[in-house]
């Protein structure tokens, strides 16, 4: 009989702090923002143009969440008028490999997933 009081090393644990962080960092808009900022720093309106489907409110909230988590930083540019640009932090750059791994997994298994979806939908109808 397995001891249920101590978690196994290979056991997947998703506690509340993990879930909250993953929800904040890997949501729809965060991934799009990170994709843009991986290439170069951007100002707010540059991000809006690069991600046309995002609303101003959603982009603002996304940038604040990413900044709060240390994934991006807000940099004030001393111009007239004063401008703000966002750039990815060294911590944020460490997200690239796991996200790329998830995308590779999706590319590999998407045909099987599509097949499963069709089979599921056919059973419902």
Task: Map the helices and strands.
Blueprint: H1 16-25, H2 28-39, E1 42-43, H3 44-50, H4 56-68, E2 72-77, E3 83-88, H5 90-93, H6 96-124
What can you tell me about this protein's structure?
- With 125 residues, this protein is mostly helical.
- It has 6 helices and 3 strands, in the order H-H-E-H-H-E-E-H-H.
- It has a 3-stranded antiparallel β-sheet.
- The longest helix is centred in the last third of the chain and has 29 residues, at 96-124.
- The radius of gyration is 19 Å and the shape is globular.
Order of helices and strands: HHEHHEEHH
Terminal Cα span: 43 Å
> Radius of gyration from the CA trace?
19 Å
Q: What's the story with the biggest beta sheet? A: 3 strands, antiparallel
What is the compact description of this entry?
It contains six helices and three strands. By secondary structure, it is mainly alpha-helical.
Keywords, separated by commas or semicolons:
single chain, mainly alpha, 3-stranded antiparallel β-sheet, 6 helices, 125 residues
């Amino acid at each position: 009989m397995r001891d249920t009081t101590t978690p196994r090393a290979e056991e997947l644990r998703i506690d509340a702090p993990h879930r909250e962080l993953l929800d904040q960092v890997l949501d729809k808009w965060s991934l799009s923002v990170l994709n843009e900022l991986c290439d170069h720093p951007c100002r707010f309106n540059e991000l809006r143009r690069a991600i046309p489907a995002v609303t101003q409110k959603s982009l603002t909230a996304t940038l604040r969440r990413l900044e709060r988590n240390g994934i991006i930083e807000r940099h004030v540019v001393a111009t007239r008028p004063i401008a703000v640009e966002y750039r990815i932090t060294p911590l944020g750059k460490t997200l690239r490999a796991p996200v790329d791994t998830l995308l590779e997994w999706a590319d590999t298994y998407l045909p099987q997933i599509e097949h499963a979806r069709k089979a599921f939908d056919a059973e419902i109808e």
